[in-house]
Amino acid sequence: MVCLARQSADIRLTVLKEREEFTANLIGSKKSTAIPLTLMVVSNSPPELWHMKTALRRIVIETHNRRWILMNFVNPGLEHPWRISIDNHYMWVVATDGGFVKPQKVQVLTLTNAERITVLVKLDQAPKDYAIRMYALSRLQFLQTYAMLRYPHREFGKMLGDPMPRPDERDSVIEIDGSIKDGAILLDKSELHPYPRVAPPEKADITLRFRATGAPDPYNPYITNCSLNGSPWQIFRGLRTPLALDPHQKFPEPNPVVTGLPLGSVVDIIVENDLPVDIPMYKHNDPTFRLGTGDTKFDWKDVAELQAQHPSLINLQDPPLGYLHDLPAGGWLAVRWKITQPAMTMFHAFRVRYFVLGMQVPMFEGDDHWPEIPEYVKNQPHVDFELPEHMGIFD
Question: Computed over its alpha carbons, how large is the radius of gyration of the chain?
């Protein structure tokens, strides 16, 4: 992960009018002194606008005597969730990729694949360097890195060119394996309520039932076919004619494609997990409301029946809103959104091994109002080939 910071000479935190009072109350001033900072992979900003220093491949974030700093943590990876903390500092979570949220005071973040979390940090500690620690949670590979949050100060007794010392692990609220230490406050994503309050549509017109699962390929026992809607969606399909050119085409069976999603309809997806691992789930085009999750099988017909029997398991008042939601190991996840425009979208796992092995569902949203595709688009060069006989993942 690479830290790039961008700052203007006279920075002000710009928010929508209805959110200005919330921000001012949080930082104690009508005119914010927060510094926007983004942890990201690339930036188109010219180097003179970057307010950071790199020393022996270590990122240093300068605070410039400000009272607050605003940070965006972004995980662009496909495998590793990250756990993040800042030594001796609390973080106020104020936004996600779904918009502003009711502030939550934490010490540790968990950032899943493709997720963004925005935090405010109060700069009220003694002048020195503080480690921004990042630990990968995937057990496929142990990764750890850190940046430095620097208050203006002078260091004595060091020779020019001496390496920066490694941050003391005793200052961290995270263990080296990514687990949190006793008493540390971990972000609770179920409490990331939208701000201002936003409620989902009361009832669903359509309920889609998916199952995250895997099974050996019948022709190649060394390959696992993963699926969400009964059969895998193979990577090679991305090389064929785009689905959007003809929403009424017939697809060879078996396939996981979902059609019949009228414009204006409210859709629920209930997905169960047969696997013993958490899986981040992502829907293209629109953020979805996370109505609820559980660590058991989903033994109800739909969300309405579950709400009638166990109202505490479903939030229809102010559920978290975002593009990424975790499907618990062996459990279930329920999300809701309203179709507002025709779009060729996809609901899929955002972990590379499950995505590549077929855990994807193409969806024709608003296919009753599909626009006419211009001929020049249809006639663009494309690859055409016969579908493999056995339709395996790597055929």
Answer: 24
Give the number of other Cβ atoms within 10 Å of residue 288's Cβ: 28
Give the residues across from 147 on adjacent strands.
Answer: 132
- 5-18 burial: b if 16+ Cβ within 10 Å, else e: bbbeeebebebeee
Token pair 């973040």 in the structure block, residue: 109
With beta carbons less than 8 A apart as the criterion, state whether 386 and 239 touch.
no
Q: What are phi and psi of 29, to 5 degrees?
A: -160, 140
CB neighbour burial string for 99-121, b if at least 16 within 10 angstroms, e if fewer? bbbebbebbbbbbbbbbbbbbbb
Residue 64, exposed/middle/buried by CB under 10 A (0-12, 13-18, 19+)?
A: middle
The region that residue 237 occupies, defined by phi over 0 for left and psi between -120 and 50 for alpha, beta otherwise, is alpha
Candidates 366, 359, 24, 316; CA nearest to 212 is: 359
Copy the structure tokens of residue 30. Answer: 């009508």
**Ordered mean pLDDT values, 10 residues apiece, the chain (395 residues):** 36 35 43 41 33 54 92 92 96 97 98 95 94 91 89 78 82 92 96 96 97 90 90 83 83 87 98 96 96 96 97 97 97 98 96 93 95 88 74 69
Those residues whose C-beta lies under 8 Å from the C-beta of residue 365, and which sit 6 or more positions away, are 261, 263, 285, 339, 341, 342, 343, 344, 345
Secondary structure class of 285 (helix, strand, coil): coil
Residue 30 is predicted with a pLDDT of 44
Interatomic CA distance for residues 352 and 12, integer angstroms: 38
Q: What is the pLDDT of residue 1?
A: 43
Contact (CB, 8 A) for 133 and 146: yes
Total residues belonging to the chain: 395
Q: Strand order in 288-294's β-sheet? A: 224-227, 206-216, 266-273, 332-338, 288-294, 321-322
Kindly report the pTM of this predicted structure. 0.83
Count Cβ neighbours within 10 Å for each residue of 242-281 and write b for 16 or more, e otherwise.
ebbeebeeeeeeebbbbeebebebbbbbbbbbebeebbbb
Count the Cβ atoms, other than its own, within 10 Å of residue 354.
24
Check residue 93 and give its pLDDT. 98
C-beta atoms surrounding 290 within 10 Å: 24
Residue closest to 320 by CA, chosen among 187, 207, 183, 137: 187
